[in-house]
């Protein structure tokens, strides 16, 4: 009745001149026709044109780049007018794309000597003049020194403001900036007008190969002045046509009817069809007030097409359930009930044969939510233990420096406990030094005794251990003398994997555990797991077994449910085979299927394995702890990942369209992607599957598929869904374009946008997939 009353009396509010997917500032010419610096309008939209720090960055600064004790080079750095990228000078000119870095790719900006590089090589420069720009992914830190402390502070403050504003941007604003940057580049003579040749260049830049006749017809339809140039409102109209989303308009009109606006009851009908949790009239009204751009429509509780697009492009319209992006799980259960984000050879930045060891690798691991890091400890000169990959050409770092890095960075992203997995190759004296450094540097954060003295053998919860550091290593048996010899906690490698020849003295030292270090092992006592019996001995929760991926797979095959039960009450760490010389990874899913908590991967090596790890720990606030499904926590569980039972869930994904996919070869204007979409399910062996669409020829801007992919699942609570976009190639392997991975249980149903990520996990905004998702449980 309410809906009908609105239909009879309401008028269609006047819509904004430009649709929601692009802001009204896209035209090159400014309103006053004066300035020809259109990039500054992007900064104006960000509210930063008058900011003194940003204005100084636009002027540029000569900063000293520091790479070693003797390599100090002065370079010019200047913020681009788009406010999203920084241009820098190179001694040897390279491709234009290699002369900039993007603000959205910055992980952190640190003041002073707060990087390994500046601590080692920046002694000639006062800390007040120094800063470090740390990037996401594998890109090296940028260590810089300014001429004055004030200039350094301008860059620190300015980058902080730009990053904060970028984080706060809606998808609409991101798209505005994205298209604005390409418009500026395509306007080759910078006259604030666009010829047809410049329009064709723009189309190639944004990854679309449009037929010349069709492109020219579109151009002429917008050229109202009939002078073979588009300017002002004409450019605005061209972009409106270019950025049209017919598939969204069709959905909108299906619910809005002929008047082309959604009332709150009509929006509620859409939400109910989406199977949106908590879909109420009040929620629909709230969405209108949040996303509608037109004030008249908002006052009448109506949503225009623009507001509808804004909603679907927002986090509330994404495939990931927004309720799962914060800590929402019970964090009061024993540690063994959680999957824990874990790193192998954390100190390495590259291969395990000749790669660089760095404390920065620990900083990056923590920034990715890692909660268990590895310290491969060896005897060092001057009585100081060192960390490196033994018997290889990898560089060495001090154990003390790594512990300081843990203190400074372990809890910046997550408050939940960190586990230091010690692979100890040191003699008794340097083990005592290790214990001293752990105690003095970590202080009260280090767990040195049980929290519950009544039940010292029970594992505490992540909630109880907030802000605390645990040591995993060998512990002296209580009945032994303090200088007794026991097995080393060196990771157990099968003989066929790695024949390691050590000197007799090294073996002797490795078999001794100092009482000082042993005393720091409280809840994570390293022990070997040789066999599993169908009816295991009473659980010993404080024991942790370390298994190579090969031995873990063998236990999964042969022990099945017994291994699952073991992992319900004890921690198990799995690590890559020693034969993976290039630091390649294994698939972690098989280990998670059996309840292994500490599935350690080489964080420095991107690939689908790390995509799965990032997807597993994407939820629960990215805190590094994810509660295992009930079937992996119950002590008497009958679950066996090799025999999960019949299908219980059907996942149906209709791949509709993609938007603004990145160009893979930015230096070749005519290189356009031929995209296809592959959907992968990673879970128990019976659930693993991959299906893909056809490819679309020469269109990375707005390709359409409309293809349906369906999957049958037996253990949906363990499944991860990975969306992958590739550039099809008939003669060689397809090239990776972007991906997004998330747990099936965090996947929202209905029409959803999937915001794509790069190989390194960085945002590819504004690149998205648009899909329809349905999950049927039976």
TrEMBL record:
Q: How does it sit in the membrane?
A: Peripheral membrane protein
Please report the organism this UniProt entry assigns to the protein: Mustela putorius furo
Q: Where in the cell is it found?
A: Cleavage furrow; Cytoplasm; Membrane
What is the protein name for this chain?
Answer: Phosphoinositide phospholipase C
Presence of keyword Protein biosynthesis: no
Q: What class of enzyme is it?
A: hydrolase
Matching entries from SUPFAM superfamilies are given as: C2 domain (Calcium/lipid-binding domain, CaLB), EF-hand, PH domain-like, PLC-like phosphodiesterases
Q: GO: which molecular function terms?
A: metal ion binding; phosphatidylinositol-4,5-bisphosphate phospholipase C activity
């Amino acid at each position: 009745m309410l809906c009908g009353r609105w239909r009879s009396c309401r008028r269609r509010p006047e819509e904004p001149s430009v649709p929601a997917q692009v802001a009204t500032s896209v035209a090159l010419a400014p309103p006053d026709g004066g300035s020809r610096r259109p990039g500054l309008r992007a900064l104006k939209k960000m509210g930063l044109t008058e900011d003194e720090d940003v204005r100084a960055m636009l002027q540029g600064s000569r900063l000293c780049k520091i790479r070693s004790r003797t390599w100090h080079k002065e370079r010019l750095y200047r913020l681009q007018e788009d406010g999203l990228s920084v241009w820098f000078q190179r001694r040897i000119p390279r491709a234009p794309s290699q002369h900039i870095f993007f603000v959205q790719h910055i992980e952190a900006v640190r003041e002073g000597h707060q990087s390994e590089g500046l601590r080692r090589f920046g002694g000639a420069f006062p800390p007040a003049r120094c800063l470090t720009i740390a990037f996401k992914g594998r890109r090296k830190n940028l260590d810089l020194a300014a001429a004055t402390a004030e200039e350094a502070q301008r860059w620190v403050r300015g980058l902080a403001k730009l990053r904060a504003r970028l984080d706060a941007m809606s998808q609409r604003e991101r798209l505005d900036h994205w298209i604005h940057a390409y418009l500026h580049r395509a306007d080759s003579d910078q006259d604030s007008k666009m010829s047809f040749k410049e329009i064709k260049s723009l189309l190639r830049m944004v990854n679309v190969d449009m037929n010349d006749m069709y492109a020219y017809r579109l151009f002429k339809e917008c050229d109202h002045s009939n002078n073979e140039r588009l300017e002002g409102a004409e450019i605005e109209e061209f972009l409106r046509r270019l950025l049209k989303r017919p598939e969204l308009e069709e959905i909108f009109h299906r619910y809005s009817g002929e008047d082309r606006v959604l009332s709150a009851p009509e929006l509620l009908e859409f939400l109910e069809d989406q199977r949106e949790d908590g879909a109420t009239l009040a929620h629909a009204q709230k969405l209108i007030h949040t996303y509608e751009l037109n004030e008249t429509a908002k006052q009448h509780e109506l949503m225009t097409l623009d507001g509808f697009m804004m909603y679907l492009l927002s986090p509330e319209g994404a495939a990931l359930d927004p309720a799962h992006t914060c800590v929402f799980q019970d964090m009061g259960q024993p540690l063994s009930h959680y999957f824990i984000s874990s790193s192998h050879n954390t100190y390495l930045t590259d291969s395990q044969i000749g790669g660089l060891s760095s404390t920065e690798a620990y900083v990056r691991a923590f920034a990715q939510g890692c909660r268990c890091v590895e310290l491969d400890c060896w005897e060092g000169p001057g009585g100081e233990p060192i960390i490196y990959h033994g018997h290889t050409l990898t560089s060495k770092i001090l154990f003390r420096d790594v512990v300081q890095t843990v203190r400074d960075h372990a809890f910046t992203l997550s408050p939940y406990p960190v586990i230091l997995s010690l692979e100890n190759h040191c003699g008794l004296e340097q083990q005592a030094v290790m214990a001293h450094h752990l105690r003095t540097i970590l202080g009260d954060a280090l767990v040195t005794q049980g929290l519950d003295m009544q039940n010292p053998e029970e594992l505490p919860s992540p909630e109880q251990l907030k802000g605390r550091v645990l040591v995993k290593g060998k512990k002296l048996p209580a009945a032994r003398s303090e200088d007794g010899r026991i097995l080393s906690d060196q990771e157990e490698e099968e003989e066929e994997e790695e024949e390691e020849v050590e000197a007799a003295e090294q073996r002797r030292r490795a078999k001794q555990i100092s009482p000082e270090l042993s005393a720091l092992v409280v809840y994570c006592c390293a022990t070997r797991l040789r066999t599993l019996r169908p009816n295991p001995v009473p659980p010993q929760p404080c024991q942790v077994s370390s298994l190579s991926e090969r031995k873990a797979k063998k236990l999964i095959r042969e022990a099945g449910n017994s291994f699952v039960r073991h992992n319900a009450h004890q921690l198990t760490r799995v690590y890559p085979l020693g034969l993976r010389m290039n630091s390649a990874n294994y698939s972690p899913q098989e280990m998670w299927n059996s309840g292994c908590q500490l599935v350690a991967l080489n964080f420095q090596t991107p690939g689908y394995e790390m995509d799965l790890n990032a997807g597993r720990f994407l939820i629960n606030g990215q805190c590094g702890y994810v509660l295992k499904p009930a079937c992996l926590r119950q002590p008497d569980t009958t679950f066996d990942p090799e025999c999960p039972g019949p299908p219980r869930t059907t996942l149906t994904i209709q791949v509709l369209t993609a938007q603004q996919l990145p160009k893979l070869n930015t230096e070749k204007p005519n290189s356009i992607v031929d995209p296809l979409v592959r959907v992968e399910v990673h879970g128990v062996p019976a659930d693993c599957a991959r299906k893909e669409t056809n490819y679309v020829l020469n269109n990375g801007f707005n390709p359409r598929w409309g293809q349906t992919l369906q999957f049958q699942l037996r253990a949906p609570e363990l499944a991860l869904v990975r969306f992958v976009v590739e550039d099809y190639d008939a003669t060689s392997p397809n090239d990776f374009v972007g991906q997004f991975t998330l747990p099936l249980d965090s996947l929202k149903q209905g029409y959803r946008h999937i915001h794509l990520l790069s190989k390194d996990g960085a945002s590819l905004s504004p690149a998205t997939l648009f899909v329809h998702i349905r999950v049927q449980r039976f």
